[in-house]
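On clarity, I found the account of how folds are encoded harder to follow than it need be. What matters is that the chain and its backbone geometry are given together, residue for residue. For the editor and my fellow referees, an illustration may be useful. For illustration, here is how one protein appears when written out as sequence plus structure tokens:

___
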Amino acid sequence: MIRASRRRYLVRNAAGEELVVPSLAALHDLYVHGFLADDDLVRSETATSWERAGSLPALHGVRERRSDPRKVLLLAIAAAALVAAFALLSRVL
């Protein structure tokens, strides 16, 4: 059986500490849970240049979801208002 090879990533924080991350999925999880900041530097083990985690295309959607948690609250309030409006309308009719 042939195992698929995974690309490992190196992460460097503002203090200069480095961490080896075993896969892109693990890097994604670290970013989702806030252990990896936008300004932390990331590079694959085969790359020679560092990139900011916030500019990595693989983490782009995560950054947008994390950027404004108020959107979820606003959406929930709007949904509740819509349900209340339908309930009032159904009583009138």
